[in-house]
Specification:
mainly alpha, three-stranded antiparallel β-sheet
Amino acid sequence: MFDRRLVQYFDWWLLSLTLVLAGSGVFLIYSAVNAGDSSSLKGFWIRQLLWLSAGLVVMVASFLFSYKRLYRASPWFYAGALILLALVPLIGKTIGGSTRWLDLGIFVLQPSEPAKLAVILMLASYYARHVRPEGLGLRELMPAMAMAGVPFVLIASQPDLGTAGIIGLVALTMTLFVKIEKKTFLFLLILGFGIMPMGWYLLEDYQRTRIMMLFFPESDALGAGYHILQSKIAVGSGMLSGKGYMQGTQNIFSFLPEQHTDFIFSVLAEEFGFIGAIALLTMILLLIAFGFNIADACRDSFGTILAVGITAMIFWQSVVNIGMVTGLMPVVGMPLPLISYGGSSLVTVMVSLGLLMNISMRRFAIS
């Protein structure tokens, strides 16, 4: 028998906000690829519409079944994600000097995007079995660190340090949420600070340069610092209300790098100014608030931790992307959820939000 509470508890506000954000993304991508002379990019907004249609289908599919089935199925999704990541260096497609994609004929997949959701599912399943009031000890944390560590290394080697970093931040957020024993936390904190300097020497030269450009972009204004400087000019020139839709000069004259993907927020800020930027930030914050509210209302550990992981993914991606384009963080390849061009990213986020709606629909169920 159909349970009417599934409709009663469905989060229509979350669905509406998702559609508004995704629609705004297509709106901005159209400007980003059509305002200037980038003829090779002019059809990208149509591709984004097609990906949005596919995303809607899989989003609906992701809340038609009980999310609790994923509790036992998580290892299969995780294993599939690892296989895809392992195939990238073998048969992956190289674009812009990085090998991050698999050409599947019909479409090109970026395996690191679904890998983020696979890690969240796996950690949620694992932590739900091991959570305890006093917190997790080192013995319980070691398998979880490996679960996040393997895809982290595979993605970082592509190289894609931005996406790898998001996996690390999301895993850390989920781990802190389920609680760590005090002595274990202190040990890991001291260990982390101890090995942090080694990380600098493990970075590639261009990665160290990007970090330095965060502080001294003017020292190489036409080289490594170009992206940050042009993005900050676009954001600042929008002032209060912006220059108008498709009227941003940084966008029109193609001064903005990757204006339809990583730097889409710069297009928004230049065309709609401070008011438009605040409007978008408000919607993203509402999305995050809805996610944490769903986690708080859920009655089982797996659903709660899963909702926290998904919300953390959207939060950290938004923070890193906006921090990057405003010169507060190093430039890394990081799409703005639901806004930036990219099929793999859009579909992954929509599936994730579909799972949030799934948890919200069934939050009344205890078992």
